[in-house]
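User: Fold both of these, please.

Assistant: Here is the first one.
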Amino acid sequence: MTLSDLFKNQAPVFLSPMAGVTDAPFREAVCSLGASAVVTEMISSEALVRNSGKTLRRLAGNGKNSLKIVQIMGADPHRMAESAVINEGLGADVIDINFGCPIRKVVANGSGAALLKNEGFALQIAESVVKSVKIPVTVKMRLGWDSEHINCLSLARKLETAGVSMLTIHCRSRSQMYRGKADWSRIKELKNILKIPYLCNGDVKSGDDALLALKESGAAGISIGRGALGRPWLLKQVMELVQCGRVVPDPGPTHQHRIVLNHFQSTLDFYGEQHGIRIFRKHFGWYSKGMNGSSAFREVINRAENIGFIKNYLEDFYEQRFRDILGERKKQQNAQY
């Protein structure tokens, strides 16, 4: 499969890169449930060139039969190109350049969304990376730096000319961070000025959101980030709706328990038990959000250190949820008679 194959007669659904979240175990969980493509965590070009063990670990693993898309970040065209070459050698199918991260420490280094303030330099980085590798190069960006400097249209045209194969646009400015509502309509004009595909990103939390985002943005596909936290099955649900018109319900409690347990075990296998438990606590929080008893569940699970206890407690939590659902159904049935 190639990047262009994903856009043949369908709207693909990508998993957005999220630092500290889209590690190998999470990407594998999403792929096992269904997604068009997933993207690694943001990789520092400087760290990769220095052969950082932690950075190399972020590149490990991916779902079977899924494109390996590696996102790189930096503010040195030469280092970015060198990083791209290393990733290509490690088996990357696509290089994605980060022009969108709004985090202060990233922006302070002139990387991520800071590059939106200097189109010429951003273009220089893109050109350097494109020329350095034989695989497709894509870019993740935002609408602009702030409401007074919305320049995604002009930069998008230049990036296409530089040889970039696809764009993903988070429909907020950097100054918004993750506040307010993503404005999908701000990128609709790209449909008339670009030949390369672009993805719409931001505030897509359901299949209905995706349908509306595609309509308002004119995008060729969807990229989902925070909406997938605690719901790795969301991408498959969105794919079924936008591609086939089918509504797929959330997995039942028994299936959800199996998904969480498999994800937890793969995290332990990947990081080791002690570190894996700490890493996964945020996922337990996301998976349990909104469920009955979730506060008490998180309070216990965030202190637990014994893997056997955690797995047993997790099973009890989902069994209780299953009983709650059955009890509610019985109440509704009795109320009809």
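And the second sequence with its predicted structure:
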Amino acid sequence: MIKLPYLDIFLAHLKMEKALSDNTAQSYRFDLLRMAGYLKQNGITDLEKVTPAVLSGYVRLLFDIGFAPSSIQRSTSSIRSFFSFISSEGVVPTDPTELLESPRNTRTLPSVLSVDEIEQLLDIIDLSVRGGVRDRAMLETLYATGMRVSELTSFAFDSIIENEGLVRIRGKGAKERIVPIGETALYWIKRYSDDDRYRFFKPHSDNTVFLNIRGKPLTRMGVWKILRQYAQRAGIQKDISPHTFRHSFATHLLEGGADIRTVQEMLGHSNIVTTEIYTHIDREYLKEVHRSYHPRFYC
């Protein structure tokens, strides 16, 4: 179990001195325990060894694995409050958050992979080892549909409308959208289901497509680590995250000539004023655009 020294004292301070509600205090606890997990993974067990560079790396990681800017701002605020408190109490000699930049509400778009780089990354996957076919199917699905990583980790088999070449994606705010997936991704999902998933399946496993070694759904962090590993093997120098696949999906369709409104419908644009424009686009037209402009639609 992850622990963080002085956390309970800090939370008691918040409740007594700042009259924070239980829900807000729990949010602080969750944010700080997640940071503590990151520190532990990086071999940092002493709070005095937490530097501005370490915390900046943590914030960048939250961006990379797809956290919303508002969530990152809240986490950053929690971290600032915690280190300000323990610094004032003399637990650490200096406050490492003094030089920590606050994230902006808008997130810089990630790097775009070229079609050749996508091919290069997919081809580097060793299909003979456990998880190889799973990882290929997972990355093909990300690129074929433009899913968010949070949508991928909850993606279930009953969301696949195979006879129509579509998938049902539950996005932000439980909003659902239908997106074409293409023959290539469907092929790899089936191959993974037939040949590789049993290696991860446990009695407690559910209908989620992509499982980890414990038989549970892959986490956002897990997907991020897998992708980074293959990017390094492929020699791709760009800063890559699961969101890079989503952005590449949209960019490649638009570069190929797809209509921007159709692409935004596939992405499940978060702005309701914008998305209402696209709700009546015919599914067959969506499939035709995807088939015509996505570089990996066909096997």
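The radius of gyration is 21 Å.
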